[in-house]
């Protein structure tokens, strides 16, 4: 039997046993042709002797004779096939690293075009030809070239892996299905392949969708970064302007202070110079008279001294310098007055800054309403759920888990778990109140300290003018005026809660470094009415954004 496959176009030149070109063709008594070795091996196994083609049975083993005509024709076909194969091989490319080589090629291995799952062999274009033309080989299963075809054989039974065991989720051969997996569920490899391929297609679509979502998220993040960059640049520009103004104010105040101090010194020096000049002039006149007196006093002539004494000029007029002095200017309070003036300037600049800051914050205004299901039974809510005050009578209400039992408190209906939000509450005419935000999981059934540790970020008024931040104990706040309307601002991601006087735009108090991990709700407590002294309601107001 030939060891090499060739290009042939006629099936009659192929041995029906080995399905290859005849080698030493011989003819049986019934007229059929086979390779000499093939028919002898067949008859060594099969007794009685039978023709593989027509199934004729011979009583004795036939004597085989060489078929000279077929032998010559096969030789001619082999020669032509070799020439054609040689020409074809010169046009084909050698297998590159990573490509599957042809298992049949000798010498230079050409790139395999297909692999046969029956022959467990990979073929180049030339050696693949029989699988495309020979009827027996056409039934073989071809696939794109792969390496390690032996991995497609059952290691236990040396048979092709043709089935898929759904029970054990593994590929098996026909013998496995009968011997080792006989009670299991099987499907052909192609059927399972198509199912898995459809599943992979679905998975791939899901992956592509996930990729697309993440790409969109990247674009969203980039837009956020660009938006943040724009805000940062704007904030820096505004900050530079503010600080430049402040520094200019400080520098101007310093220069004014220095100029005023130096002017005082110059005035003192001018006064001293004038006194000294006048004193020096008197000294000069006095020295001149002293010289005349001294000269006359040395005269020994009686007549001359008496005659000239009468003509001696009178003493020039002089000032009484006893009470005259140069007093250094007083600088007491000069620095204080300069700093006070600067402080006033800074206060005006800070007011402008707070007004601009509040204007930006008011853009995050939300519509807040009160939640009756959380209100303490002593509280009275308005029909529009915008006002709340304390009543003397305890209402008969369901004791639901959301309701405050002991604390005179109520929450807003709206919750927030991201972003920024702002709302304003009128506190005018009240002597006590508490405002802020609270997390969803706060204890609503007991009286506990209002602190960030317990989920409250609030400020309060006690005894008409004692404003405090609630942080375990009350931290007193120093305010220039009594707020009539309080603004509450929250930046969830930044962990910031700020309180503003909505009329004066002054910052009252803020909590920073807060760790928010759950929903936040607006928190309101009008406090007891104190026999009518604190009967005014807390009123959630619409935010009037200043232009």
Structure description:
The chain has 547 residues and is α+β, with helices and mostly antiparallel strands. It has four domains: 1-90, Herpes Virus-1 (2-Layer Sandwich), CATH 3.30.40.10; 153-184, no CATH class; 192-310; 365-541, Jelly Rolls. 37% of the residues lie in helices and 18% in strands. The chain has eight helices and 24 strands. The chain has helices at 36-45, 68-91, 125-133, 135-138, 174-179, 189-297, 302-311, 334-361, and strands spanning 25-27, 33-35, 49-50, 57-58, 65-66, 114-116, 121-123, 142-143, 163-165, 170-172, 186-188, 379-381, 387-390, 410-411, 420-426, 433-439, 456-462, 466-471, 473-476, 485-491, 496-501, 506-511, 520-525, 538-541. It has a seven-stranded antiparallel β-sheet, covered by helices on one side. A six-stranded antiparallel β-sheet has the order 14-23-16-17-18-19, with no helix packed on it. α6 (189-297) packs antiparallel against α8 (334-361). The longest helix has 109 residues, at 189-297. The model is unreliable at 1-8 (pLDDT under 50).
């Amino acid at each position: 039997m030939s060891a090499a496959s060739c290009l042939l176009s006629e099936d009659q030149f192929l041995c029906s046993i080995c399905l290859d070109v005849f080698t030493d063709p011989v003819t049986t008594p019934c007229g059929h042709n086979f390779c000499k070795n093939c028919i002898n091996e067949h008859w060594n196994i099969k007794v009685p002797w039978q023709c593989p083609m027509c199934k004729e049975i011979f009583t004795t083993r036939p004597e085989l004779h060489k078929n000279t005509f077929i032998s010559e024709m096969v030789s001619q076909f082999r020669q032509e096939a070799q020439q054609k194969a040689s020409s074809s091989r010169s046009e084909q490319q050698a297998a590159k690293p990573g490509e599957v080589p042809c298992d049949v090629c000798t010498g230079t291995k050409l790139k395999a075009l297909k692999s046969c799952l029956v022959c467990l062999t990979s073929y180049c274009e030339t050696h693949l030809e029989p699988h495309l033309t020979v009827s027996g080989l056409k039934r073989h299963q071809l696939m794109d070239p792969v390496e390690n075809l032996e991995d497609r054989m059952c290691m236990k039974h040396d048979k092709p892996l043709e089935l898929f065991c759904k029970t054990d989720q593994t590929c098996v051969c026909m013998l496995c299905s009968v011997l080792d997996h006989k009670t299991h569920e099987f499907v052909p490899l192609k059927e399972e392949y198509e199912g898995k391929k459809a599943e992979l297609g679905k998975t791939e679509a899901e992956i592509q969708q996930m990729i697309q979502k993440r790409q969109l998220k990247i674009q969203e993040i980039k837009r956020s970064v660009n938006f943040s960059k724009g805000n940062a640049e704007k904030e820096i520009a505004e900050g530079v302007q503010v600080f430049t103004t402040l520094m200019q104010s400080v520098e101007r105040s310093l220069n004014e202070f220095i100029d005023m101090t130096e002017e005082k010194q110059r005035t003192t020096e001018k006064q001293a110079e004038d006194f000294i000049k006048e004193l020096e002039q008197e000294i000069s006149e006095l020295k001149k008279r002293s010289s005349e007196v001294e000269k006359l006093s040395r005269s020994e002539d009686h007549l001359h001294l008496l005659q000239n004494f009468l003509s001696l000029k009178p003493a020039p007029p002089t000032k009484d310098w006893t009470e005259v002095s140069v007093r250094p200017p007083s600088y007491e309070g000069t620095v204080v007055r300069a700093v006070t003036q600067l402080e006033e300037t800074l206060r005006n600049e800070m007011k402008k800054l707070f007004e601009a800051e509040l204007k930006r914050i008011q853009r995050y205004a939300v519509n807040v309403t009160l939640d009756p299901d959380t209100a303490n039974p002593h509280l009275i809510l308005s029909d529009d759920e915008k006002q709340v005050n304390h009543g003397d009578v305890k209402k008969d209400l369901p004791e639901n888990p959301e309701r405050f039992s002991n604390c005179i408190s109520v929450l807003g209906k709206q919750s927030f778990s991201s972003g920024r939000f702002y709302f304003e509450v009128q506190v005018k005419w009240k002597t006590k109140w508490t405002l802020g935000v609270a997390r969803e999981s706060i204890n609503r059934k007991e009286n506990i300290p209002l602190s960030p540790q317990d989920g409250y970020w609030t400020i309060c008024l006690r005894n008409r003018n004692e404003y405090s931040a609630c942080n375990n104990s009350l931290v007193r706040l120093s305010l220039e005026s009594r707020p009539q309307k309080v603004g509450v601002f929250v930046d969830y991601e930044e962990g910031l809660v700020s309180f503003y006087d909505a009329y004066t735009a002054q910052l009252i108090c803020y909590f920073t470094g807060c760790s928010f991990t759950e929903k936040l709700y607006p928190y309101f407590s009008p406090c007891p009415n104190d026999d009518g002294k604190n009967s005014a309601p807390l009123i959630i107001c619409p935010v009037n954004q200043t232009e």
